[in-house]
Every structure is written in structure tokens, then in C-alpha cells.
Design goal:
The chain is α+β, with helices and mostly antiparallel strands and 416 residues long. It has two domains: 108 residues, 3-layer Sandwich (Rieske Iron-sulfur Protein), CATH 2.102.10.10; 214 residues, Naphthalene 1,2-dioxygenase Alpha Subunit, Chain A, domain 1 (Alpha-Beta Complex). The chain is built from ten helices and 17 strands. A seven-stranded antiparallel β-sheet has the order 1-10-9-4-3-2-5. A seven-stranded antiparallel β-sheet has the order 11-17-16-15-14-13-12, with helices on both faces. Strands 6-7-8 form a three-stranded antiparallel β-sheet, with no helix packed on it. Strand 14 and strand 15 form a beta hairpin.
Length: 416
């Protein structure tokens, strides 16, 4: 209770528009509260439907203390279960992904079907009621080819998220794509620092020469700030995409947890490549042009995404410790695109491989500075870091309510 009270007081006393106090980025006790009240309660982006295309295909993920398995059933439905055998608790699946006709515990071979039902327990089936020992389910939904799950006993309603983002994602046919490349790195920084760094491009011109070839660092063109619709480049891009039947305008959820929009690239670019030309000659769908810019999807607490005409990028963050965060990036292309024929892997991945490594160094230096007892919260730029302010306000408000302290701050609604 001491840590809960301390965090609640810190949230209530924080200065609006300033970064958080040191403990939010360093304290093991605050990290445990983040897991309990954010990562164990919110919907989390986990992976892609195209990674589990056939019955028996599975992927696994570790969320804090919870190992989880996501599997495609024989009825073609995607389900998630706690990756814990109901016999003596061993993990069922130790591989990151694979395919199995049934789920067999490697310890004592208790066996479950793909819907989680216990179907075999050697020399014990007469002594137990198999219906009482099925795998424990985890709430799971798929939208636009993206898989989300929630560890909460009573998850929040998923349908508002589906209604907002599905029309934007559906035209890209991502449930029929494939993962061309996946990269996982460990950033030695708190998960909130990883998210804060993503939510601004104040740092981009000095740190991301590759990304800035095609992606604007101007907040009025990419962050969704107030008055964005007055920017001629944005309005022209939205009108062009809408003429192709593609929803494009900025939308944000009532609680400001997720938002979607389309933004144009700069320098007449078609894709996030060093040349600006498409990375994949076979587009994701039958688009009349590759000049769709990027469809941005942000979802707190753990994902941001770029959906292009020729490929898509997903970014997933999961906290490991107060000062370590796992960042997984996946590049998706048309399911029939052939490496070496339809795309070159280096050309596809080099911009974000470089950007991710640059962001890793930025976050780690940020964390090193905050570890100093000399650190104190500093002011965010209202022009360039408005989206960071919005993220921190969302986090502070969510934590305050769940700690019983009411609302911590008045959230800002006019940033993306």
C-alpha cells in the first residue's frame, strides 16, 4: 500500500506539461504498479493473424509474469490461453511460434485440443473431471489482421476500438499478408520513455537522417495537432485518399487511448525506403497508386503502426523491468510477394532498422540521465511534444483512477 499511496500522491501533485518524477521511470515498486494496472488490464497488441493462418499455428508472448499462447483452432477462430499446464504448471509451449495438432505439456504430456479442452492425462482421466482442467482462456480479438489480448478478468469493451480502426485497416488486406521480417531489440529504458520518444519528432532531424528522407518532422503534418485540417498538404492528401475509398481523417477515441489517420510522405516518396520508392513491387491490395502515405495507428500502452500501400509495419513494446523494454518490429508484405523478386529485404527494412537503433540509443541515454538523483521533471514543448503530453496525461489519468485517486490531469485532445 505504501507504493500505491506514494504514486497516487505523485500523480496528483505533478506539474501539467512536465515530465514525470524519477520514480516513474526507475522504481521497481512503480513498475509493478504499471504492470498491475496498465499491462494486466488494457488491451495489448500482440501479433498478426497472418502468423497463425492454419489450425494449430501458434505464437507465444510473455507479458510481465504471464506467459500466453495464441493459437488458431480447428474452427479457424483465434484464441489465447495462459501458457500454463493445469497439472503442475509447466509452460506448454516453449517456442516463440510453431504449429501443432494439439497442445502437449512437455513435462507429463497432459494434452489439450486447440480449443483448450483437456483430452488426455495419462493414468488420471478416471480420477479427475477433464472439464474442470481445461486451459485458462485469455480474452482475444482480431481486427484488421492485428491480434489484441487482455489479461483482465473483465476486459474493457473491445468493440469501440474495432469500429474506429477496422475501416482504416481493412483495405490493406493485412490478414492475408505475411511477415517478411521480424526484429526484437531490448532497449535499456523504461517503457514510458520508449513511448514518449515515439510520440514526438522534436528529435528527428538531429537523430534520424534515414526516416527524415520520407517522413516529416513537422508536428502540423504528422502529429495531428489542432488546426491540422487547415494544412493544405494534409487536406489534399485526405481528399485524394478518400476519392479512392480510403478513410483518412484524424480520429481519436473518447478516452484518447487510440487514434487513426493518414499522413502524406515528403519529397514525393511512395514508401519508407532510402530511395522513397516502393519497397515491394506487389502492393498489399489493388490500390490504384502507391502514393497513400502512411495510415497511422497508435494504441496505448504498447503499439504504433504504419500501414502503407506496399507494406505495413507494426511496433510492439512490452516492459521487462523498470529500465528495460522489449521492442518488436515486424514488416508485412503481400502473402504472394517473393523475396528477391518482388522485394529486396535490405531495401524493405533499412530505414526502420536504422531508426530503431537510433531510438534505442536515445532512450538509453534518456534513462541514464533520469537515473541520476540530479534529475527533476522538465517542461515539454507545446508545439513539438504535444503528443507526449497527451500520452503522459492518459497514463497519469488511468493510473490515478485505478489507484483510487481520481483524475490526475485534464487530458489534451487536440494532438495525435
Amino acid at each position: 500500500m505504501e507504493a500505491r499511496s506514494a504514486m497516487a500522491m505523485d500523480l496528483m501533485s505533478r506539474a501539467p506539461g512536465f515530465s514525470l518524477k524519477r520514480d516513474f521511470y526507475t522504481s521497481p515498486a512503480y513498475h509493478a504498479l504499471d504492470l498491475e494496472h496498465i499491462f494486466y488490464k488494457e488491451w495489448l497488441f500482440i501479433g498478426h493473424a497472418c502468423e497463425v493462418t492454419r489450425p494449430g499455428d501458434f505464437l507465444t508472448v510473455q507479458i510481465g509474469e504471464y506467459p500466453v499462447i495464441v493459437v488458431r483452432g480447428r474452427d479457424r477462430a483465434i484464441r489465447a490461453f495462459h501458457n500454463v499446464c493445469r497439472h503442475r504448471g509447466s509452460r506448454l509451449c516453449t517456442d516463440e511460434r510453431g504449429s501443432r495438432p494439439r497442445l502437449v505439456c512437455p513435462y507429463h504430456q497432459w494434452t489439450y485440443d486447440l480449443e483448450g479442452k483437456l483430452i488426455f492425462a495419462r493414468d488420471m482421466m478416471d480420477d479427475i473431471d477433464p472439464a474442470q482442467f481445461g486451459l485458462k482462456p485469455v480474452a482475444c480479438h482480431e481486427v484488421g489482421g492485428w491480434i489484441f489480448l487482455s489479461l483482465a478478468e473483465q476486459p474493457r469493451d473491445f468493440e469501440p476500438l474495432r469500429r474506429m480502426v477496422e475501416p482504416y485497416m481493412a483495405p490493406h488486406l493485412l490478414s492475408e499478408a505475411k511477415v517478411a521480417h521480424s526484429s526484437t531489440i531490448i532497449e535499456r529504458g523504461n517503457w514510458k520513455l520508449v513511448m514518449e520518444n515515439n510520440r514526438e519528432c522534436y528529435h528527428c532531424s538531429a537523430n534520424h537522417p534515414e526516416l527524415c528522407r520520407v517522413f516529416s518532422d513537422q508536428p502540423t503534418l504528422t502529429s495531428g495537432q489542432k488546426g491540422m485540417e487547415e494544412a493544405p498538404q494534409i487536406l489534399e492528401h485526405w481528399q485524394s485518399c478518400e476519392a479512392m475509398g480510403l478513410p483518412s481523417r484524424y480520429q481519436i477515441s473518447d478516452d484518447m487511448q487510440y487514434r487513426v489517420m493518414r499522413v502524406p510522405f515528403i519529397n514525393d516518396a511512395d514508401s519508407m525506403t532510402m530511395s522513397g520508392r516502393p519497397a515491394v513491387s506487389r502492393l498489399l491490395a489493388d490500390f490504384p497508386t502507391a502514393k497513400l502515405g502512411s495510415m497511422l495507428l497508435y494504441h496505448y500502452p504498447n503499439s504504433w503502426n504504419h500501414l502503407l500501400a506496399d507494406h505495413a509495419l507494426s511496433f510492439r513494446i512490452l516492459p521487462i523491468s523498470p529500465t528495460e523494454t522489449e521492442v518488436t518490429t515486424k514488416w508485412l508484405v503481400h502473402k504472394d510477394a517473393v523475396e528477391g523478386v518482388d522485394y529486396d529485404l535490405q531495401a524493405l527494412t533499412e530505414v526502420w532498422a536504422a531508426t530503431n537503433d537510433e531510438d534505442r540509443r536515445i532512450v538509453e541515454e534518456n534513462q541514464r540521465g533520469i537515473l541520476s538523483p540530479a534529475y527533476e521533471p522538465g517542461p515539454y514543448s507545446k508545439l513539438h511534444e504535444g503528443a507526449v503530453i497527451q500520452f503522459v496525461d492518459w497514463y497519469a489519468d488511468a493510473m490515478s483512477r485505478r489507484l483510487g485517486g481520481g483524475t490526475a490531469a485534464t487530458p489534451i485532445r487536440d494532438v495525435a
